[in-house]
Write a structure and sequence with these properties.
Elements (H helix, E strand, L loop, with lengths): L4 E2 L7 E4 L6 H13 L2 E6 L5 H12 L3 E4 L5 E5 L10 E2 L4 H11 L4 E6 L10 H10 L2 E2 L6 E5 L7 E4 L6 H10 L6 E5 L7 H13 L4 E5 L2 E4 L9 E2 L4 H14 L1 E6 L11 H8 L3 E5 L2 E5 L7 E3 L7 H10 L1 E7 L11 H11 L3 E5 L2 E7 L1 E2 L3 E2 L5 E3 L5 H11 L5 E3 L12 H9 L17
Parallel strand pairs: 2-15, 3-14, 6-7, 10-11, 18-19, 24-25
Antiparallel strand pairs: 1-25, 3-5, 4-5, 7-9, 8-9, 11-13, 12-13, 15-17, 16-17, 19-21, 20-21, 22-23
């Protein structure tokens, strides 16, 4: 079900504190690793969103057990061995589900099918499937929908793929590799891999569970067969989702605080703090919280290859900044939930932003804006989300300074942050009560 939404204008400087739900990337990795471990573990801070529910449902079909505890944590019990799913596993539009679960299902002898949303067939998954074929799995297609047949025992070890379209191709195979009878010797051939911090996240989470990922050379990872230890833990707040709230202060002025910010992290979203500083904001951190205070918003030339999920929000900021901006290194996001470069060019352009695609990004000429006074030369309009939560975040940022920005489907934010409309309204709209957003539990899957 789609839900249209009029983006709130900012009529005053902001003074808010937003508790951001758990990281989708960490949540789905933690759920998968808990399911592959033999034993019970308890996870806190687990994101409750469409993507995490799809991951949990798929793992349940493969034999993993989940229990929601009264304190909001989730207990996960992995079976001795996964079994093939009796019914097709629904991946929705979730890259982690459509890429991570087939690699896990390779350990479950028999036929398992995967389906997804209508747009899911356009999301690349072929390199993961090519890797599974090299390990001895039969696969019927190179995209969703597909059926795979895993043998009683995987025969391969050496795998070569082109992961230049997504770091998730590497993570997918590494996450399950310790449960493969021969482990894996994985090699990437092709252009550079985007979002490398996500592979670092995968390797760090495996190491915490007793799985060593050797990295003997650039583009090569080796995992030996062995157990994955069950580990209790807490998922960090999603720093990419946090960026949209911090961006609000940059447009409207004032200060927005996000508590629970980790001292060190493998999340690529942390890059947003450096972007905010370069665009003129004041960034401070203390007592486990990050605060961003808006100032004159200026254009930026930035390479987001390692943190490409930030592109839509940074593009919206660039549209409201003084002077030109260039976003580089993100050509691969043409294969994300939608072709994000084409979508940003079309939707920003429809309300008067001067924007054009390059081979690996965008060039945007900012009009300058004050969240209370408006953005010169930009006009109201209906923006399309393309079922993409990041496009919805971009529309919300733009709507702070441009009156009459409407989004065709705010419900798509349920992919990673179901409470986004409520959190955004409480932060931005003066009539919603206190400008300080109350602590909201991070929820459980």
């Amino acid at each position: 079900m789609t839900t249209s939404w009029l983006a709130p204008r900012a009529h005053q400087r902001l003074a808010g504190r937003v508790v951001v739900p758990g990281s989708k990337s960490q949540t789905n990795r933690a759920l998968l690793l808990a399911g592959l471990a033999r034993g019970r573990c308890v996870l806190g801070g687990v994101l409750d969103s469409r993507d995490s529910r799809l991951m949990r449902a798929g793992l349940t079909q493969l034999g993993v057990s989940f229990e929601d505890l009264p304190d909001g944590r989730v207990a996960v019990t992995g079976p001795r061995r996964l079994h093939a799913a009796a019914e097709p596993i629904d991946c929705g539009l979730a890259g982690t589900v459509m890429r991570f679960l087939p690699a896990a299902a390779a350990t479950a002898p028999g036929r398992t099918s995967f389906v997804g949303d209508e747009a899911a067939s356009a999301r690349p998954v072929g390199p993961v499937l090519d890797g599974l074929r090299q390990l001895g799995v039969e696969v019927t297609a190179s995209s969703l929908p597909l059926t795979m047949t895993a043998p009683q025992t995987l025969s391969g070890r050496q795998v070569t793929i082109d992961a230049s379209a997504s770091s998730q191709f590497v993570s997918a195979l590494l996450l399950s590799a310790a449960r493969y009878p021969n482990g894996i010797d994985l090699r990437h051939v092709g252009p550079s891999i985007p979002s490398l911090p996500h592979i670092d996240m995968t390797c760090a989470m495996l190491a915490e569970r007793g799985v060593e990922v050797a990295h003997p050379a650039e583009g090569r990872w080796v995992v030996e067969p062995g157990p994955i230890e069950p580990l209790d833990g807490v998922v960090e707040p999603d720093l990419t989702n946090a960026s949209v709230f911090l961006a609000a202060a940059m447009v409207a002025g004032g200060t927005v605080e996000v508590p629970g910010w980790p001292e060190s992290t493998t999340q690529p979203g942390v890059v947003f703090l450096a972007v905010a500083r370069r665009m003129g904001a004041v960034v401070e951190s203390s007592d486990g919280a990050v605060r961003v205070t808006g100032a004159q918003l200026r254009g930026i030339d930035v390479d987001l290859h390692a943190a490409s999920e930030l592109t839509p929000v940074v593009a919206a900021l660039a549209a409201l900044a003084d002077g030109p901006s260039r976003i580089r290194g993100v050509g691969h996001i043409r294969g994300h939930e939608t072709d994000r470069l084409a979508a940003l060019e079309a939707e920003l352009g429809s309300v008067g932003v001067e924007v054009s695609q390059t081979s690996d990004g965008l060039v945007i000429v900012g009009r300058g804006a004050d969240g209370r006074a408006g953005a010169a030369g930009l006009r109201p309009g209906l923006l399309h989300s393309y079922a993409d939560h990041r496009m919805a975040h971009a529309a919300a940022v733009l709507g702070l300074a441009v009156p009459g920005i409407e989004l065709d489907d705010v419900a798509c934010t349920s992919k990673t942050m179901p409470t986004f409309p409520q959190l955004w309204a409480a932060l931005v709209e003066p009539g919603s009560g206190s400008p300080v957003v109350p602590d909201v539990p991070q929820g459980c899957a």
